[in-house]
Target: ATP-NAD/AcoX kinase
Amino acid sequence: MHVGFVLNPVAGMGGRVGLKGTDGKVAEAIARGAEPRAPDRARRALERLAVVAPDTTVSTAADPMGERLVRAAGFDPARVVDPFGSSESADPPAPTATTAEHTARVVEAFVGAGGDAGADGDGGADSSAPVDLVLFVGGDGTATDVASALERAGASVPMLGVPAGVKVYSSVFAVSPEDAAEIAATFSRTERREVMDIDEDAYREGEVRPELRAVAHVPVADDLQSSKQTASGTVESLAEGVADDIREREGEGVTFVLGPGSTVGAIKAALGFEPSPIGVDVWRDGEVIVRDGTEAEILAALDEENVIVVSPIGGQGFVFGRGNPQLSPAVIRQCDVRIVASRAKLDDVRALRVDTDDPDLDAELSGWVRVRVGKFETRMMKIV
Model:
């Protein structure tokens, strides 16, 4: 197996600082104190790949798009594609200097459409051989860049995503970095799947406009997630029941961290305030104390007793790790977690999932949990 590995080093940086995405917002994310998320997720995928398939041939992109991490995981790259045209003595570009065009150049070189310019073959394998799989780290924007490059090259090489973006609407991603490595090492067939992306400016205004950007060959495995689906059915009774429970705690100083999405949005409306439809709001003793909060703002609002109310995102079954990065491990560890969902949403998922960037926390959250599905009714679901 010859894997072409490429990293979008700034993917996901806008999430925890409340930007709902990073496209065109890298400078603002940094100004808000954002820290890189994607490199650590890349590291996790590569380290797992080195365990499950140590003989894998890996080609990669020059830093900051992959080389250092590939070597640190123990792979000697068969090829290092330099999309920047840098000299060997030059320092690598800053992560913020990377663009969609750089990703496209790397992918096109992987599949033989980029020529040998700027490429260095220093491993034992044939550095000019096309890769068998493009393994990329990023979000929907990166997935679009990879798929578009493959399409322009006329290549049927499959692609697989290590999820690191704020928005992960496409069905080309593995559930976690480790799952991506497992799939890359073991898949035996592919199928055509959709690459979706949304208008981030509209998304920041609370409107989700998913658009089909490409259809790509993707390895088939149970641990590939489905694309997000819009939840169906009404949640009024559920929202009323949860809102009643929250009101009963008024005057006790309990802080409720109310996640994004339509289901929790209905609870916010039942409490009597206009929700941030894709943001996190914080409620205590009958009033909103943080609206559309960042991770830092949420942490500052927490007190002695805190409760997160969250709903799985669309048809994926993700409770944490998709669409709500503000609910970071630091936030989750200070809160009790209450999961709510419509019956229709749960009918569409086999299990619930978490991907918090903290494997230990993911393990702590796993197991059977009670999900509120009505005014009084609950259902047992397993977080895997």
User: Anything to note?
Assistant: The chain has two domains: 2-219, 236-383.
